[in-house]
Known about the structure:
By secondary structure, the protein is of the alpha/beta class. The chain has a single domain, classed as Indigoidine synthase domain (Indigoidine synthase fold, 3-Layer(aba) Sandwich), CATH 3.40.1790. The protein is 47% helix and 14% strand. The chain has 13 helices and 11 strands. It has helices spanning 10-17, 28-32, 38-52, 73-81, 93-99, 107-117, 134-137, 142-147, 165-175, 206-219, 240-256, 264-275, 279-301, and strands at 7-8, 22-25, 56-63, 66-69, 86-88, 103-105, 121-123, 153-156, 178-182, 201-203, 226-229. The site of manganese (II) ion has 3 residues, from loops.
Amino acid sequence: MPETILTLSEEVREALAARRPVVALESTIIAHGLPRPRNLAVARELEGLVRSSGAVPATIAVLDGRPRIGLSKEELERIATDPDVRKLGHRDLAPALTSGASGATTVSATAFLAARAGIRVFATGGLGGVHREWTLTQDESADLQLLARTRIAVVCAGVKSILDVPATLQRLETLGVGVLGYGTDRFPGFYLASSGEPVDWTVRTPREVAEVIRTQDALGGPDVALIVANPVPEDEQLDPQLHDRALAEALAECRERGITGQAVTPFLLDHLMRRTGGASLEANLAAVRGNVQLAALVAAAL
Ligand code: PSU
Ligand code: MN
């Protein structure tokens, strides 16, 4: 993609040219996944954690119709505070660019743009996936299909527990997306250290993850993502019983209010946060912090 379409910050461009470690970060979690004004503090904190772990952060968003890879302080602030910032999946990019819109990028749009910019490692909280009641709504996040066509390693705490986790794991298998458990043989449960579902492959160090990425590159074959599933530390997870209660309520309310489409994920995340007295937010943040740090170490090991 020509640079006239993709705008890299000077820092990111220099780091990539010098083959220094770079970690892509998504912006939907900032604009639509976290409450204000905490979201801006978190956005800055995550960039700081990437730096202190030895890599350059590249937060990705679309501003005034231009995809930005790496944001200035002011641009990050805009994403966190401007109420008109939209939520952009990868299918939204062309119309957003054409109309000069501004938007935060989801996992699908971020992974797409990061790969175009030549970034190999991406950190987020939890991936989108197959929603519960999929048979009624056909709601499956575009994250999965995009990751099935994009060569990038995504460090995440599993998929959001608001989803149908076994169905999502099955879909990842069907799509041929590799999943590594980091220090665990259980797939993480986003707010919870474990979803209870098994993973087939366990790795224990950033170097091992980097070796799998290198082997994938050496092997060639279709461009496909590698998911590095990194659990939230058990002492920082949400109380599992509180989680199950609050989630059942949130799902019921979502159904009663007839919320659909892009609004579903932000609604459920926000409802859970209020219902758990903020505890789900703390677990979410603990997971994301761990992920950005691990992603930086993996990028450095690469
Ligand atoms: N993880 C979080 N908070 C979020 C998201 C993920 O901790 O807000 C966002 C990601 O950007 C992900 C999106 O790509 O939710 C999925 O939304 P949907 O289900 O509408 O595809
Ligand atoms: Mn959806």
